[in-house]
Amino acid sequence: MTDTAVREIEQARNEITRLRLRTQPFIAGEFRDVIGGARYVTENPATGQPIAEVAQGGPADVDLAVAAAREAADDGRWSRMSPGDRKRILLRWADLIDAHARELGLIETIDAGKPISDTVELDIPETAACIRWHAEATDKLYGEVAPSPEGTVATITREPMGVVGAVIPWNYPAQMAAWKLGPALATGNTVVIKPASMTSLSLLRIAELGAEAGLPAGVLNVVTGPGDTVGEAIGRHLDIDCVAFTGSTEVGRRFLTYSAESNLKRVKLELGGKSPQIVFGDADDLAHVAANVAIAIFWNMGENCSAGSRLIVHRSRKEALLEAIEAELPRWPVGDPLDPATRIGALISRGHLERVLGYVDVGRREGARVVTGGRRILEETGGYFLPPTVLDGVRNDMRVAREEIFGPVLSILPFADEDDAVRIANDSIFGLHAGVFSADRERALRVARRLRAGQVDVNGGGFNLLAPFGGFKQSGYGRELGRHGLDAYLEVKSLQLP
Ligand code: NAP
Ligand code: MG
């Protein structure tokens, strides 16, 4: 980290007592209380202490938000604004998010337990970058002309869907919001979005900054509250045209039911993963491999849909790689997310910590060996901390290799030859992400092509915000980011002119 970054983070921490948190739904351009006035506590997962009481919305609040979004969609205050003007507003919004990186990063850290060096330096700047990329796309969406008989013209244009619903998870609260809001708004839609109830605070502030940037009232509406009421009301709403969801496969499935049982709204799903990382016997620099393997599984406490949770390693290199991974662990200090040196903060909740620990027990009972970690630490803080955990002796038919754990838990599975590696990697209901490490470029590319996953990194290629993201199989469908990410929010219209 640079000195400036450290100073920035120190300054953010000092501003904690001055934070003014927004805790009400943002509907039709203003914060307002929920019908019925219910509230719930959102806590800091690093202390177990309450931070604020957030208004707990319900279906009637969703109705109000959808009515505001529908009115804004119908009168064209956003969709018919000139693309250049829409672009300017979205760019201003991105700039405001950047300008508030310390405040937003701090909110994200205390609400979600994420390390402040990540939130201030990455999550919030990447939230702004995502809005900015889509802002830039606003006036670059061209149509097509179809072949048609002499003397006639047939145009193909893409129009906004209308009202978009979005329901997002708690692991990247600001970024997941931007991944939906960027493309939905750039394509001229209006939006009703529900943050995860455990992490609603950053999005409320971001919505307020949107209004400050000039987003007209009703274009962006945020409703806070639980998934099984607010989320379901969005999924079943007759006046929402499409819904974008990120979260568990189980809830993703429900959104398809909601759609089938309501108005057949389009559904885009970004769900879980059990991503393989394959390390061949010829991978030469094991320290480089171990550093990338650690990033893939320990980043964001492993609360990552694309977490590389299955390490599929050639049996000849397993022990050496295990040693290299253990040598990496000191670079992953666990602790107070407000400490700039921390790289692993708190898991999101007590319930989630127990669920992850439950998987470690399941692994033990299935015959895996806990090489390191596997026990709660820093309990005296009241926070939900789990150190990097490595399970050896895992077989691909064990539950720890099949189900998404969503914590810093790495399973190690040895393989014998290339076909074996590909078979194990593809033997999963998920297909979100995969990694391949080999010094043999031809082999790496051959294997990368055979892997059934939406993204494949070769030799630690890393995440690219400019490339489409999304899954094969039960990791969902539809893509986010890049030009492919716009498709879900657009209808195609063909027009014939004499
Ligand atoms: P989740 O239940 O799928 O939650 C994701 C979002 O859906 C939240 O906003 C949630 O609201 C909402 N929701 C919950 N139940 C709903 C329902 N019946 N109808 C409509 N919306 C509903 O995920 P989670 O409980 O937070 O985490 C469970 C597991 O899901 C994790 O352990 C992990 O395996 C996976 N997960 C995956 C991702 C990903 O990025 N793909 C992200 C998060 C979790 P509330 O939270 O407000 O109730
Ligand atoms: Mg919280």
Q: Which word captures the global form?
A: globular
- Proportion of helical residues: 25-40%
Strand content: 15-25%
The biggest beta sheet reads: 7 strands, mixed
The N- and C-terminal alpha carbons lie at a distance of 63 Å
Bound molecules: NADP nicotinamide-adenine-dinucleotide phosphate, magnesium ion
Unreliable residue runs = none
**Number of beta strands:** 22
Describe the secondary-structure layout.
Elements: H1 3-14, E1 26-27, E2 30-31, E3 39-44, E4 49-55, H2 59-74, H3 83-99, H4 101-112, H5 116-137, E5 144-146, E6 153-160, E7 163-167, H6 173-186, E8 190-194, H7 201-213, E9 220-222, H8 227-236, E10 242-246, H9 249-261, E11 266-270, E12 276-279, H10 286-298, E13 310-314, H11 318-328, H12 350-366, E14 369-372, E15 389-392, H13 399-402, E16 409-415, H14 418-426, E17 430-431, E18 433-437, H15 441-450, E19 455-458, E20 472-473, E21 476-477, E22 490-497
Parallel strand pairs: 7-8, 7-10, 8-9, 10-11, 12-13, 12-18, 13-16, 15-16, 18-19
Antiparallel strand pairs: 1-2, 3-4, 5-6, 6-22, 11-21, 14-15, 17-20
Helix pairs in contact: 1-4, 1-5, 2-8, 3-5, 3-7, 4-5, 4-7, 5-6, 10-11
The structure holds NADP nicotinamide-adenine-dinucleotide phosphate and magnesium ion.
Magnesium ion binds at residues 42-43, 111, 198-199.
